[in-house]
């Protein structure tokens, strides 16, 4: 397309260069190369190196042809050439280029001594160094430009006030759910308060009578809705509905919304109580352990005492056996000795000794009988 | 033939719109020369008023778009709208459907015993 709206140059290759709002003066410094009111204008690549250096310092690479950029390396010039010639290839942004020393990201900024905190904060909102020349976009400048354009000296605030968020404006008054009140009130001075109703209902009936709205078997069903709606407006029906409908809706609400939520809450509190109970039980567990230990100790004591008793009885039985043996032996000896002694004595008793013993006994008896008091 | 498109304005702001005067663009406002509102006209002024209006295709499209945006702003985007915009939309298209189906049952109009 040779002539495009707003562009004064015709060459295709030059049309691919973008321009920004840069104060670009001529190489001699006489007339400006570009005027703002011309809009999108394509410039020839400047041949003056001073201009190139000035633009390079401004970090505006859009008006500078790649052949005149001395800061680019050979590889980067080659990339730029390929991107310039091809409609599809893109010049890789600097942050994706492989650099010597590795692609290291450094997150500190050198600031001079005496920088205030505000200056540091404003600096932090600037774009990083590797993105500044790729897309020179300054938010503050954009806002300043918008403010200058939209709220400049020519602005007509009376007829075209500033933008109002529609979400903050309340809805216009509405009658019967879709009729605006302005229309309603506009008809009142011409046809009274019932004008709208008469026009709408009477108009429908007139059109039906004239045949514009065809009266088929289905037309009556349309009027049933209106009759039902008017029926609900009657006071007794209105009163009944105002009582019954909230009752039913509250029932449904409780059944399907409030009830399940309350069940969940109760379940949760029950779980919390059970957990608290478990926690308390865990707190009292050491007592249980002490009781169990004491139980075991008692069993051990019981066993010990049983064994002790067993040992005692066994020892005692052995000792009793020994005692009985000794006693038996002693008794035997005693009995044997007594028997032997008596037998020896009896053996040694002669008849005359026996006779003498009996005589002595009789004599003693006689003496005793004399002294006895019978 | 591409020269016919040199002075056209396809998909752009109206020629009379100037952000320095009118501020941010609002689709529901008219940025041309102010004229009397239609409701305050007398009957003999109606044709003059219509002649002053832009009756080209783009003008009609702009009028339609402005009305849509203003209706949306008033009834749809306002606080507490509760579906009134949808109801108006449905009624409008119901009316168009009525117009479309006007000829459907005309054979019943001349029925003697209807």
Automatic annotation (TrEMBL), chain A:
It is found in: Mitochondrion; Mitochondrion inner membrane. Pfam families: Mt_ATP-synt_B. It comes from Magallana gigas. The keyword Membrane applies. F-type ATPases have 2 components, CF(1) - the catalytic core - and CF(0) - the membrane proton channel. CF(1) and CF(0) have multiple subunits. This is ATP synthase subunit b. The keyword Transmembrane applies. It comes from the Eukaryota. Its main location: mitochondrion. One of its GO terms (molecular function) is proton-transporting ATP synthase activity, rotational mechanism. Keywords: CF(0), Hydrogen ion transport, Ion transport, Membrane, Mitochondrion, Mitochondrion inner membrane, Transmembrane, Transmembrane helix, Transport. Subunit b, of the mitochondrial membrane ATP synthase complex (F(1)F(0) ATP synthase or Complex V) that produces ATP from ADP in the presence of a proton gradient across the membrane which is generated by electron transport complexes of the respiratory chain. ATP synthase complex consist of a soluble F(1) head domain - the catalytic core - and a membrane F(1) domain - the membrane proton channel. These two domains are linked by a central stalk rotating inside the F(1) region and a stationary peripheral stalk. Gene3D superfamilies: 1.20.5.2210. GO terms for cellular component: mitochondrial inner membrane; proton-transporting ATP synthase complex. The chain crosses the membrane at residues 187-208, 214-231. SUPFAM superfamilies: ATP synthase B chain-like. Belongs to the eukaryotic ATPase B chain family.
Automatic annotation (TrEMBL), chain B:
The chain crosses the membrane at residues 83-102. Pfam families: WRW (PF10206). One of its GO terms (cellular component) is mitochondrial membrane. The keyword rRNA-binding does not apply. Keywords: ATP synthesis, CF(0), Hydrogen ion transport, Ion transport, Membrane, Mitochondrion, Transmembrane, Transmembrane helix, Transport. The keyword Plastid does not apply. It is found in: Mitochondrion membrane. InterPro entries: F1F0-ATPsyn_F_prd. Its main location: mitochondrion. GO terms for biological process: ATP biosynthetic process; proton transmembrane transport. Belongs to the ATPase F chain family. This is ATP synthase subunit f, mitochondrial. It comes from Magallana gigas (Pacific oyster).
